[in-house]
Amino acid sequence: MLTIPDSLITRLAEAKTVTVLTGAGISAESGVPTFRDAQSGLWARYDPHQLATAEGFASNPKLVWEWYEWRRQIISKVRPNPGHVALAEMERLFPKYSLITQNVDALHERSGSKDVIELHGNIHRNKCFVEGIVIDSWPSDDSVPPRCPRCSGWLRPDVVWFGESLPLAALAHAELSAMTCEVFLSVGTSSQVHPAAGLADAAKAAGAVIVEINLEKTPLTKTADYSLRGKAGELLPALVTAIGSQSAERKTGSE
Ligand code: BV8
Q: If DSSP codes are grouped into helix, strand and coil, which group holds residue 102?
């Protein structure tokens, strides 16, 4: 039985500003391998830190392109899970709500979330490796990766690789949302990759209540005010239901 402390439900029912950060764990129940599990089968012999880097791409563009194509075809077959849906529903529970994701699978948008802050880009977009410009279409030939129609450089996924800076506007928006919220929820992330992993610390320093929802302990667990161990696809819907019924009780109580 999932136990969510009453004090957390009360705190969330009263909250006006809530910020959420998600990682690969929110998409796991949809069937998208988590970042570190994304080396199952064929990819088991590769280190993601080698594949998800500009150097890795430059030294073997075909291998890296095919790793992303393999992930894209998995993502094309999956659907958002109840955890994504609960986070979309949270938009109507809080006057000020920000959803930040480290994921590149765009499943939050597909589940109805609006204004998602994508810290690490989007696997469905491609850009020129030379010019950095997003390219929507290119002549289909058999080159792998495809070539940029403008400069003939390689195309690459429009995601942030290790050693690359995050999109400045997204990072600034995420930092502001972390530093101005009353409650910060960290969901389905190992809290190891920076600067995303630093957002919870920024929220804590600004006085927010920190809530972690994760299958395992992480570096954030020791500083979180609440650490709920379990599946996001079960805990988040339970949280939304509990907040909704407590808010309804308050309304009838005050009438
Ligand atoms: C940068 C996109 C400037 C690509 C990704 C400070 C300290 C230490 C290191 C650094 C630092 N600052 C910068 C660095 C270097 C580096 C970094 O953080 N390295 C780490 C490994 C130590 N950061 C960078 O390079 C960043 N760039 O800072 O630029 C700069 C430049 C050069 C040098 C310094 C600074 C760029 C980082 C972005 C990399 N791109 N993804 C792609 O997807 O292909 S990162 C990728 O891994 C994900 O996007 C995600 O962000 C990250 C972590 O993955 P998670 O989402 O947490 O997934 P993971 O599998 O790890 O964990 C899933 C969790 O869910 C688990 O805990 C599991 O238990 C849980 N779970 C599973 N199922 C469920 C569940 N929980 C609930 N319910 C379930 N059902």
A: coil
Q: What is the pTM of this model?
A: 0.95
Number of H helices, E strands in the chain: 10, 8
Does CATH number 3.30.1600.10 belong to domain 33-77+126-159?
yes
Question: What would the pLDDT profile of 12-35 be if each residue is shown by its tens digit?
Answer: 999 999 999 999 999 999 999 887
Domain ranges of the chain: 1-31+80-120+166-255, 33-77+126-159
Best mutation site among 194, 201, 229, 239 for ligand 1, i.e. most ligand atoms within 8 A of its Cβ? Answer: 194
Query: Does residue 87 contact residue 116 with C-beta atoms inside 8 Å?
Result: no
Q: Give ∠ CA 105-110-111 in degrees, rounded to 5.
A: 115
Q: Which two tokens stand for residue 172?
A: 């600034």
Place of tokens 């379990």: 230
